[in-house]
Specification:
The complex is a heterodimer of chains A (about 60) and B (about 230).
Chain A: H1 5-63
Chain B: H1 3-30, H2 43-71, H3 74-106, H4 114-135, H5 140-154, H6 156-166, E1 176-177, E2 183-184, H7 189-231
Antiparallel strand pairs in B: 1-2
Classes of the chains: A mainly alpha (about 60), B mainly alpha (about 230).
Chain lengths: ~60, ~230
């Protein structure tokens, strides 16, 4: 089967669109997962901080 | 969060990763190149997987919303909200990859084809759902209203699925009837197998992210309780 220059250019263009398509998938998915891990990190830090504050306030109140 | 549930989450994550790797291999190597569309058609496997996961997420929103209205249990509200968020992510991927696929095949980035239009409407409904939830996250009245909104949104799912059959557009009808009255996907067996694996990978990924996202909501609830305890 003869492959013309036109066919070759069309395949190169198809490859580019294939690359863009899969890039979009990974960017959106990984971006969302990254956002979730950051949210978890921030929540855990806030929870630990509040627990620490409540403990220190309890010990100050019990000393009084 | 118990160690047991952490272990299950890790196991689910590992299974998801394996399925994604296998799916990628099948999409790029195992399935044959389509004669008319060439290499670009390989976007189809993950495009359709994302669409399937997005629609599944919408169904989960509907079921969780019904359960919340019946029981008023906070966990169902959390599942509905998390599902809607994940559904929007997968649907966005589906819309964008569909557009990228359409450009070389149909010559346009977008067309008001019935399937594309009904899917866009579904996406907009869930964007509106998330905006509603963001406006007053802890208000039970907003949660109930959002649950009703979520149930109404599910009604759009069969419309999206049947749209290509009811209103003939340029979107292909995936499940076709042959001259011998047999139903077929219009794909080779290798393509069908690759599609099944990719859809499974997306569904596993949906469940993994759902479990992780609901864990974050539990953390948020814990934070709210601690703030209340400190205020007292």
């Amino acid at each position: 089967m003869e492959i013309t220059l036109k066919d070759l250019l069309a395949e190169i263009r198809n490859l580019a669109y294939l690359f863009y398509g899969y890039s979009v998938i990974w960017v959106i998915l990984l971006g969302y997962l990254f956002m979730l891990t950051r949210r978890e990190k921030s929540l855990r830090a806030e929870v630990e901080e509040l627990k620490r504050l409540i403990e220190s306030e309890k010990s100050v109140n019990s000393e009084r | 969060m118990t160690r047991n549930s952490d272990r299950w989450l890790d196991l689910l994550g590992f299974a998801t990763l394996i399925l994604i790797i296998v799916g990628l291999y099948m999409a790029f190597v195992y399935a044959q190149t389509e004669v008319n569309m060439g290499l670009v058609y390989r976007i189809f496997f993950f495009h359709f997987g994302s669409i399937a996961a997005g629609m599944f997420a919408v169904i989960v929103v509907g079921i969780a919303s019904i359960a919340y209205l019946r029981t008023s249990a906070r966990k169902w509200d959390r599942v509905a909200e998390a599902s809607a968020e994940i559904g929007v992510v997968f649907s966005t991927i589906g819309l964008v990859t569909g557009s990228i696929w359409a450009r070389p095949i149909w010559g346009v980035w977008w067309t008001w084809d019935p399937r594309l239009t009904t899917f866009l409407i579904l996406w907009l409904i869930y964007i509106a759902y998330l905006m509603l939830r963001a406006s007053a996250r802890d208000d039970p009245r907003v949660a109930r209203f959002a649950a009703v909104f979520g149930i109404i949104g599910v009604a759009n799912v069969p419309i999206v699925i049947m749209s290509a059959r009811i209103w003939r557009g340029i979107s292909p009808v995936l499940f076709q009837q042959t001259a011998e009255q047999q139903f077929t996907f219009g794909l080779t067996p290798e393509m069908v197998q690759s599609l099944v694996v990719c859809i499974s990978a997306h569904l596993f990924l949906f469940f993994y992210i759902l479990a992780y996202r609901t864990r974050l909501d539990s953390l948020r609830d814990q934070l709210v309780e601690l703030r209340r305890a400190r205020a007292k």
